[in-house]
Every structure is written in C-alpha cells, then in structure tokens.
Design a protein that fits this description.
Number of strands: 16
Structural class: alpha/beta
Distance between the termini: 18 Å
Order of helices and strands: EEEHEEEEEHEHEHEHEHEHEHEHE
Largest sheet: 7 strands, mixed
Mean pLDDT: 95
Low-confidence stretches: none
Strand content: 25-35%
Length: about 325
C-alpha cells in the first residue's frame, strides 16, 4: 500500500500538564531493518502515560514525543530484516512511549519486531488494547515475581481497576483462590472475573473479614492502589507469603514492620513493567494471547476518545471520572 508522508499524532514538546499535549501532523516514521510500521487501530490511556507526560516518571523522550504505551493495529511495512510479519497482519504492542521509543497515539507507529506480537483471530481490538498493559503487569507480578501456584490464596486490593481485574482473571485461570477488595459497586464485576469473595474496602471491619476468609493466611498480597499498608497486611500473611509492590509513585514512604517480615519468611517484591526485558514481555505476550484467544481475559471499557481529543482523555483519567478503560481511536 502507499504510505503517506504525514500523519496525525498526539505529542508533547516538553513534559508537564495535560495542556502540553498537541495534536497535529508529523512525518510518518520509517521502519529500520528490524522494525515494523503499524497502522494504529486502537490505543488506550494508562496511568503510567500520565507519569511520562508529566515528567514524574523519568525516561528518555525524544521531542516532539508521541505519547501512549499500547496499540493494536495492522502491519503496513516490515523492515527488510523482519520475518514472521506480513502486511495486513493484526498485531499488538504494549511497550511504546518510553525509553526513547515513540508512542502509540498516532495514525502510524514504528515497533521493534521483538516487541510486536500477533493478535489472535477473532479478538476485538478494543478489548485487546484495554488489557495489554495491566495483564502484562499481572503476569510479571504473579508468574515472574510471586510465582503464584494452584491452590494458593491471592488477595487483590483494588480489584475493580485495570490491573486488579487482570490479576483476578489470571489468578483464577491458574487455579488460585482469589479474595478481592473493591468499591461496593465493583463487586459484581470482580465476582465475574473470578473472585471467590469480594469485600468493600470502606468496611471498618475489613481486616477482620479478610482474616475470616483466609484463616491460614494469604499467600500472595497485592495492593494495586499503591497505598501499600504493610502494617495491616503483614499480620494476615501465611508463612513464606509474598507481597507484591508495583505502584505508589508519589505516595511517600510507608512503615515496614521488619519483625513480621523476617520472622515468617515473608518476601517483599517490587517491580515496574517498564524495566521488563523484551524477552520477559514476549513471555508475558504468549500468556496473554492464550487467555485472549480463549476469552478468559477481558476489561471494562469506560470511554472512547478520538485521537484529536487525547488531552481530554488524559484529563479524564487523571480526574477519576471514568469507570473502566479509556480507549483512543484514530
């Protein structure tokens, strides 16, 4: 197909508030020998996108910098050194928009072939793009870090959110028992995702209810909200339990009860998906594709914005006014 010389894109010239986002024409990027040019079908707004845009998450940004981490799209032109992708293939990526890589909020994006994966047949692009980043995060935390096993008990705090929902679904698929905390209105969704019990996180007796549901303790505890109340969670942990930390940027320090940590062989595991290697992301992609193909991984879509309204989409996520994922369409 003919490739145009210019494209619409949402980008920034410097980090800062949402008003730094511009939407205008930029040159269509050209793929290198091992890259693939992809036409964007759908993207999504992630919390980390706000951190990158604002400068809170420091990473190399070549300006003008196209924002956005994830995309589902169609292969337009593989580089001469690329095998396995052909024009017209449906594909996805969840590691654009940081570490020097231009982002996904554009009509076209160049993706390194090692970071590009086939989209399973029959999977709707919007449903796929909505889960790519949170589900890869869940995979890294559950499989690589916590090594969750069938029959173990996982407690997900903030299970109604994107990462929380992915955690519940992936752990349920593993055969683990999932306990969840969420807003009362999110309880039906968490149950549909596979949680065996859902507790209102505003309940003043929350700690007591968790203890009653897991009398032998929790094997893996993951607070997706970033509050990381270790003083509350450590007494509820089973021996050799694992606490996963992947959020909390800007929330400050939290007390660490050292006695409870070492005396019960507990492990505190921190990670950021942005640090994952291409091989680790590819391993996560294989897991995600299996779940996507089987229909075992889905997300709630709360709003859709056109690319021209990228700033409004960022503002909507920052304002917390949307329940569900915010999709970006070209």
């Amino acid at each position: 197909m003919d490739i145009p010389h210019s494209m619409r894109a949402a980008f920034i010239r410097r980090t800062g508030d949402v008003d730094q986002i511009e939407v205008a024409d930029l040159p269509v990027p050209r793929p290198g020998p091992t890259d693939v040019l992809v036409r964007m079908t759908a993207s999504v707004v992630n919390p980390v996108d706000l951190f990158v845009r604002s400068g809170a998450y420091r990473t190399h940004l070549p300006f003008p910098f196209v924002i956005g981490r994830d995309l589902v799209g169609t292969v337009v032109q593989p580089g001469p050194g690329v095998s396995g992708f052909r024009p017209g293939d449906a594909v996805w990526c969840n590691s654009l928009g940081h570490h020097g890589r231009q982002g996904a909020f554009a009509q076209y994006a160049v993706v390194a072939s090692e970071r590009l994966y086939p989209l399973p047949s029959g999977v709707a692009p919007e449903q796929a793009v909505a889960v790519l980043h949170p589900a890869a995060t869940a995979h890294l935390g559950l499989v690589r870090e916590a090594r969750l096993q069938k029959g173990e008990t996982l407690l997900v705090e903030g299970a109604g959110g994107a990462v929380g929902s992915a955690l519940v679904q992936m752990a349920h698929d593993t055969g683990a028992r999932v306990l969840a905390t969420a807003a009362a209105g999110d309880a039906p969704w968490c149950t549909a995702c596979g949680a065996s019990a859902v507790f209102d996180y505003h309940d003043p007796r929350l700690a007591e209810r968790i203890a009653g549901a897991a009398p032998d303790g929790v094997d893996v505890w993951w607070d997706t909200s970033g509050h990381n109340d270790l003083a509350r969670c450590l007494p509820r942990m089973a021996p050799r339990g694992r606490i996963v930390v992947m959020s909390g940027l800007g929330r400050g320090d939290v007390p660490l009860p050292m006695g409870a940590l070492y005396a019960r062989d507990l492990r505190l595991l921190g990670f950021a998906i942005s640090n994952a290697s291409a091989d680790e992301l590819a391993d996560a992609a294989r897991h995600l594709n299996r779940l996507l193909a089987s229909g075992a991984l889905r997300a709630r879509i709360g709003a859709r914005f056109q690319l021209a309204d990228a700033a409004r989409a960022h503002a909507a996520l920052a304002g917390g006014r949307v329940r569900g994922r915010i999709i970006i369409l070209p």
